[in-house]
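Q: Hi! First time doing this. I have a protein sequence and I read that you can turn it into a structure. Is that right? Here it is:
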Amino acid sequence: MSRRLIWHPVRREWVEPHERLVRNVRFGRAPMVISGHLDDVLNHADGKRYSDKRAYERAVRAAGCEIVGNEHLPDTKPAEMPPVEPDIVRALEELGA
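A: Yes, that's right. Below is the predicted 3D structure, encoded as structure tokens:
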């Protein structure tokens, strides 16, 4: 009777399927969870420290302030550059190349 074995990339040996490497769910098909924890952020409007994002945002809004930097800018097309070939040709002619 034959045994089924699979390659274990960390242990670098053949193992039985029940010993297989379990993928890290952080990189798998699990939903992405954004933590609401902060490392004690100081709110300068009220002088208190916050370790929760939502509490911090509520306190900022309650003080009549606004959090900036989270804006989504519209996609813009890059500026069209003028052709450079004539300038290169002129520079080479001036240098006598």
